């Protein structure tokens, strides 16, 4: 008799649990704003690669709240890995600089939905301070030590230069092309040393490991906390042409409806205090704005030019 009572009670509890669980499931389904079951997001470190994971992680909760589905944030080792992961549908949304985005678009049909906004850098002051104007572009700097004997771009001949991956707009492509226009072929006549992160490029110049570095304007702010005199100890030898700001792109196969929902969700997140902190901490973004593929035609032009530089 006792066994029957226990069994009956267990059945009653199980049934009760099932009944109470059903409304929760329907609420979850109703909260979904997209048809995707989950959203896989990937970043690439532009600096401080060892800490970016913790800084980017809060985006999971923020986007989940907006979309109603699980969001997974991971950090890649380089741009090409994100592009390939988007091509194989392992990553749904990538934070990509212009050059890798163009490759992702042409090779795998990725589509840009947003472009970052930053406050401009006051280059006339030379102290890394911001202007009060949001812009959708930035420049790269050829950085040298303040007391360096390198006074012109032609003095880079035979010198050791810290660069990023060859797909990096500010860390490689734009400086290489613009220097060639000024008569300096660093690919042929200089020693290019690849480092991981623009902060490492700055430090390599500061520590004397390299004679110059290609960095985004102004990556010195990243190391300023630990090196307060960095702006007094270094100088910009050259600024490049304007580079379109970084993208948030979606892989091919995501519906137009879902793309719109994700775009709107990111815009909403970017306007919250927590969202602003994530974007600022990870990439020094001040916000995001809607974008289109034609904004990156200048990148395609530089890609063609760099193919001829050997």
TrEMBL record:
Which UniProt keywords are present, listed alphabetically?
Signal
Family statement drawn from the similarity comment of this UniProt entry: Belongs to the phosphate/phosphite/phosphonate binding protein family.
Cleavable signal peptide? 1-21
This protein's GO CC annotations: ATP-binding cassette (ABC) transporter complex
- Pfam families, alphabetized: Phosphonate-bd (PF12974)
InterPro entries associated with the record: PhnD (IPR005770)
Q: What is this protein called?
A: Phosphate/phosphite/phosphonate ABC transporter substrate-binding protein
Task: Write down the superkingdom of origin.
Answer: Bacteria
Q: Which SUPFAM superfamilies match?
A: Periplasmic binding protein-like II
Tell me, which GO biological process terms does this entry list? Answer: transmembrane transport
Q: Which taxonomic lineage is given here?
A: Bacteria, Bacillati, Bacillota, Bacilli, Lactobacillales
């Amino acid at each position: 008799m006792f066994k029957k009572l226990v069994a009956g009670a267990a059945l009653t509890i199980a049934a009760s649990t099932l009944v109470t669980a059903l409304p929760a499931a329907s609420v979850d389904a109703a909260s979904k704003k997209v048809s995707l079951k989950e959203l896989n997001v990937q970043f690439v470190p532009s600096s401080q690669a060892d800490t970016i994971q913790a800084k980017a992680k809060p985006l999971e909760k923020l986007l989940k709240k907006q979309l109603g589905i699980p969001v997974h944030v991971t950090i890649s080792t380089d741009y090409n890995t994100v592009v390939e992961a988007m091509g194989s549908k392992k990553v749904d949304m990538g934070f990509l600089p212009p050059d890798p985005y163009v490759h992702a678009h042409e090779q795998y049909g990725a589509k840009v939905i947003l472009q970052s906004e930053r406050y401009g850098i006051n280059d006339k002051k030379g102290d890394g301070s911001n202007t009060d104007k949001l812009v959708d572009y930035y420049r790269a700097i050829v950085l040298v030590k303040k007391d360096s004997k390198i006074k012109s771009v032609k003095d880079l001949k035979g010198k050791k230069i810290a660069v990023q991956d060859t797909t990096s707009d500010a860390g490689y492509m734009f400086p290489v092309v613009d220097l060639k226009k000024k008569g300096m072929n660093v690919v042929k006549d200089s020693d290019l040393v690849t480092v991981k992160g623009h902060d490492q490029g700055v430090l390599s110049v500061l520590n004397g490991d390299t004679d110059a570095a290609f960095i985004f304007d102004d990556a010195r702010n990243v190391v300023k906390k630990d090196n307060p005199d960095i702006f007094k100890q270094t100088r910009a030898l050259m600024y490049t042409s304007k580079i379109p700001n970084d993208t948030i792109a979606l892989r091919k196969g995501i519906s137009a409806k879902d793309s719109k929902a994700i775009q709107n969700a990111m815009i909403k997140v970017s306007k919250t205090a927590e969202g602003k902190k994530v974007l600022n901490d990870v990439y020094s973004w001040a916000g995001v704005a809607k974008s289109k593929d034609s904004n990156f035609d200048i990148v395609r032009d530089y890609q063609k030019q760099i193919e001829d530089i050997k």
